[in-house]
Design a protein that fits this description.
This protein is mainly alpha-helical. The protein contains 13 helices and no strands. The protein folds into three domains: 121 residues, Four Helix Bundle (Hemerythrin (Met), subunit A) (Up-down Bundle); 57 residues, Winged helix-like DNA-binding domain superfamily/Winged helix DNA-binding domain (Arc Repressor Mutant, subunit A, Orthogonal Bundle); 68 residues, Orthogonal Bundle (Arc Repressor Mutant, subunit A), CATH 1.10.10.10. Helix 7 packs across helix 9. It comes from Streptantibioticus parmotrematis.
Length: 278
């Protein structure tokens, strides 16, 4: 550390910011050592203690940005990542003891990354799931991969339970809980191998209007079975064979008008019986 920076760190007073413009990583590290030594001589809770503590946090904010780069694939959450990483840095500053014999960077980075991972673990569940099941889901995934490689097939529930030394019920419970993990937006791009940029929302099937027709047909079957033979024949020819009323009349030797009256009477009867049963 340069003599100028060393004097600045050693003599700075409460409320006076430390200018680190142009300071190298090594100089920031050395400045942190001096500040930690100073922090250790101060009484916790005093104004000067708080100032030195805050200065240490500001000096090492680059560690938070460095750790956040590991999660660059979550750019939409980067603001939250930086905030959570800062919390991890604050915890590292409060817990660090120079007597540990390690550099602050070595101590702080795992703490910062761990805080960010904890954030994802606790916020990536669509439904709140007990921590025990969250952790068991991870163990289950690891055991599934390991056994699949060993057995050259998907492991059974019993094999997973034996590997993890838990009951089969717990394996099933963890699998059900895993369904609540990381629900994606239906507006997100599907992202399959033949992706055409279509969002999941546009791939969700709508209710098939023909479903109601199936229900009606099921309910009509016993009613149609009780119709006279000629009326059943006319229904079959009109709606099954898609014949015109004139063609039906010619086939049965009756007039088109007669066919029309029979169809109308039969359909009204079926409709009345269907509505009465509902």
């Amino acid at each position: 550390m340069s003599v100028q920076l060393e004097e600045q760190v050693s003599t700075t007073t409460v409320g006076t910011p430390i200018d680190t413009t142009g300071a190298s990583v090594a100089e920031v590290r050395d400045m942190s050592k001096v500040m930690f030594a100073r922090l250790g001589r101060l009484e916790e809770g005093t104004e000067e203690y708080q100032y030195v503590r805050n200065t240490l946090i500001e000096l090492n904010m680059a560690l938070v940005r460095f750790a956040a780069k590991r999660f660059g694939n979550r750019a939409d959450q980067m603001e939250d990542i930086l905030q959570v990483g800062t919390i991890g840095l604050i915890k590292a500053v409060d817990r660090f003891d120079p007597d540990y014999g390690v550099e602050f960077v070595t101590f702080a980075l795992p703490t910062i990354v761990g805080e960010i991972k904890r954030f994802f673990r606790d916020t990536s569940w669509a439904v709140r799931v007990p921590r025990r099941l969250q952790e068991l889901r991870i163990d289950l995934a690891k055991a599934t991969d390991a056994l699949s490689a060993e057995l050259d097939r998907a492991p059974t529930v019993g094999e997973l339970a034996e590997r993890l030394n838990i009951t089969e019920e717990e394996v099933l419970e963890a699998r059900i809980a895993a369904n609540a993990y990381s629900a994606g937006s239906i507006d997100a791009q599907a992202g399959d191998e033949e992706d055409d940029g279509t969002a999941w929302a546009n791939r969700i099937g709508a209710e098939d209007p023909a479903l109601e027709g199936i229900d009606n047909l099921t309910a009509l079957k016993p009613l149609i079975a009780h119709l006279p033979d000629r009326e059943r024949t006319i229904l079959s020819m009109r709606f099954g064979a898609d014949m015109t009323q004139a063609a039906i009349g010619a086939e049965l030797g009756i007039s088109q008008m007669h066919v029309s009256r029979l169809l109308s009477r039969t359909l009204n009867r079926l409709r009345t019986q269907l509505l009465t049963e509902d």
